[in-house]
Amino acid sequence: MSAALPRTTREVRLAAVPEGLPTQEHFVVAETPLPEAGAGQVLVRNRYFLVFPGLRTLIGGEVEGVPLPPLRSGDTLFGPAVGEVVAAPAGSALRTGEIVAHMRGWREYALVEAAECTPLAGAWPDPVSYLAQGAAAYGTLTRLADVRMGDVVFVTGAAGAVGSLAGQIARLLGARRVIGSTGSPWKAERLMSELGYDAVVLRGEGSLADQLAEAAPEGIDVLVDTVAGEQLRAALGAARQGARFALVGALSGQLSAERAGGSAPVEIDAFRIVVKGISLRGYSGADHPDVEREWAGRFNEWLRSGEISFPHTRIAGITRAPRALRELIEGRHFGAVVVEL
Known about the structure:
Helix content: 25-40%
Keywords: Oxidoreductase
CATH architecture of the largest domain: Alpha-Beta Complex
CATH class of the largest domain: Alpha Beta
Number of strands: 15
Order of helices and strands: EEEHEEEEHEHEHEHEHEHHEHEHE
Shape: globular
CATH topology of the largest domain: Quinone Oxidoreductase, Chain A, domain 1
Organism: Streptomyces inusitatus
InterPro entries: ADH-like_C, ADH_N_2, ER, GroES-like_sf, MDR_fam, NAD(P)-bd_dom_sf
Structural class: alpha/beta
Number of domains: 2
Strand content: 25-35%
Number of helices: 10
GO molecular function, one term: oxidoreductase activity, acting on the CH-CH group of donors, NAD or NADP as acceptor
Protein name: NADP-dependent oxidoreductase
């Protein structure tokens, strides 16, 4: 192992499974010996990792149908990360100095199977862009909702990691009018001034249904829903004939203190779905394995041309990562939340 490398590294562990929403007290930043790369492995010094709301579900343990394992007390958290290979055994397909993406974030140094790394090799204008959660938004809009020229699109949770990209993508795919929802006036202002949203409805500022009717007097053609709950009900009330609804998240239940992260019940008007001919489908990336590569190509082109931006908040240092998760749950940040090491 190179003498330039430290003897120890830090990682974020779940100290205790919470009852309700996790707080900083449920995590610990632990110091552990730096691992050595064995056959088929590489040691990566992480530069960035993503803080994502799905961790709430993994911590809550309600993971049926989720392609990730639950987190138990004492486990190190994980998730998408970008870093630099600092040690690789002889014969490895990866070399020291290469920038790679992998799923072992929440630690300063990660021991990763080489086969589980994606070399980035200068493919991205900024490596942190690889952590953008746009594949789900792009897949939803191209595979389920099939956005068309002239459509009116409503995006719930528009200031989140998925929603902040969904509105931009919808516009690039031909949407005539893009409407978002959020819970903060300052986020609403940024959605319109920076991301091109035509209108924003505000949770907690009167009837969502009335606000949406005013923002889309002719109704909506497409829903990209990351929240569910009352926002899904309001969207059904505004749906035009043949509207296409795609559910990509359910944050109203996932981030509820009364639930464990794996359910989001909502009462909806089935009669309206029938008479309006509304399609309502859930998006799963596993059902569309071709989307990730297609999205990466288009996102790269749009980034380089300046047609799209990657809204995100950078949090400095691993010790602030547990707090960043709590702040994400509380809705304090705009766009994706990334820890920079």
